[in-house]
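Submission sheet (multi-component)
Chains listed below:
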Amino acid sequence: MKIRLILFMLGGIALASLLGPWLSPYSVSTVSAAPLSPPSLAHWLGTDLHGRDLLTRLLYGGRISLLVGLVGASVSLLVGVTYGLVSGYLGGRTDNAMMRLVDILYALPRIVLVIVLITLFDLKLKGLLDGSWLAPLAPHARLMLLFVGLGLVEWLTLARIVRAQVLSIKERPFILSARLIGQTTPTILFRQILPQVLPTVLTYLTLALPAVILEESFLSFLGLGVQAPLASWGTLLADGASLLNPIQTPWWCLLFPALLLATTLLIFNFLGDQLRSPKK
Amino acid sequence: MISFLFRRLFSSLPVALLVLATCFLLVRLAPGSPFTSERALDPATRQMLESKYGLSGSLPQQLARYIGHVLQGDLGDSLKFRGRTVVEIISQSLPRSLLLGSISFALALGLGIPLGAWAAARQGRPTDHWLNGLALLTLSIPTFVLAPVAVLFFSFGLPLFPPAGWGTPLQLVLPSLCLALPFVGICARLTRSGLLETIGADFIRTARAKGVSEKSLVLLHALRPAILPLVAYAGPLAASILTGSLVIEEIFAIPGIGQFFVSGVINRDVFLVSGVVLIYCLLLLFFNLLADWITALLDPRIRLDS
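Outcome: structure written.
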């Protein structure tokens, strides 16, 4: 009952982000004559410093924030599951070496790693893309790095979880049978073991999604993530925060992005909780 | 104990050096140079600057030189803040970040543990549900969302606290609360689940059968083993508070180590960035070590020296 309501809310946010920018009478960058006007019938959530409609920008930013979450979580899923499967199944020295690498990466402050990765390879990737047939993608090099970079730092926990599960699964009789009928290691890994760890992995997805969204907003907030003219919930929040001053407080520019971001994260965390807690 | 410390020290040092080397190479490999921020330098000047700061020669040579200096306690000069050494910058800014961090750490544990214990004591009743909801809410709202909203309400809406700055105790209230709040929820949950698990254990039933009062049952018998997961989490918690402080320092204009780190990355200030990452890494390793040690103190089954 409660779950259905929550899922409905999540679907609402996703759908609005997807369709909203089309339905809205304003475009993301339309500059109107009324900068910083409070919420009204014409602009439901008010306008920002340049007179752009905040609701439209929020929905548009939702596309980017949710997309970053999806892509980042998928990358972390792909890397983490494969790494954990291989490490756990091969065991012995390989396993040891692979897990030490995970330990070292754990010791690096993760957000720091992404910051370094993005700021440092932004221009390089842009140059690479510019020279190839992928040139139209070049302006979005930073965004793509953000997608991949966030996924690449989020896989560590998943790799550990999957490995621990594989360690016990690989001792079960059906794996021995699979080996006896001559199935190759990749087949055993992906056809026999993977389906067994899938429920855990899907639960983890509900944790990875908000984690990636949060990290993207965090970076964008610091000015290191999504860059103007693109917007995400993180940059909108940062814009709102930078407008605060004692003389005039356009609270709507800050409060609405904050509410939307917090609600989305809350929904994901709640779903993760429900999935992990045992059925009554 | 002593041998445990030594073993950990020996296994941690290579990790710290590896992290340091990775960071140094990453920043050096990045496009853009710390010296060419505004206009292009002629090659001669550039070469002079590079050799002055020890950045001449091939990358492995630079790295070897840098690591050699670090092992002697010299973290190099900042390239952006000319005339200041990295050690100077860190020793000025780190105490501020540490003060902020330790207040938040104390708040997270000091509020989280009692709230978690309270929820566990009222398991299944309305208080428990409300506290659980509250915990989920606090841990879902990230620091950088909470902080500006708190400033909006408590500095501009109700002028209770200063919106930014550093120096007076009143200026510490908002930053430390905002930094701590998400972790209060996590600590409360860990305490609650740990307590509920131990309450069901055999030795608790025995103690209850002996007639131990309910209060000392929880406080003396159950809390000690129940708190183990929380202690294990204390290491990552310290790390999260450190990185969370990055954004808090930005919002509240606190001249801590996080601000220097962000500016260092943007300016390709290789020695500053590497130095700060080294400090982060050492602090992390130290907190993990501390957590393991406290775990062993609390749980007599764990032997560090074996």
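Remark: Chain B touches chain A at residues 15-16, 18-19, 22-23, 26-27, 29-32, 136-137, 139-142, 144-145, 147-149, 151-152, 156-157, 163, 239, 242-243, 246-247, 250-251, 261-262, 265-266, 273, 277, 280-281, 284-285 (CB under 8 Å).
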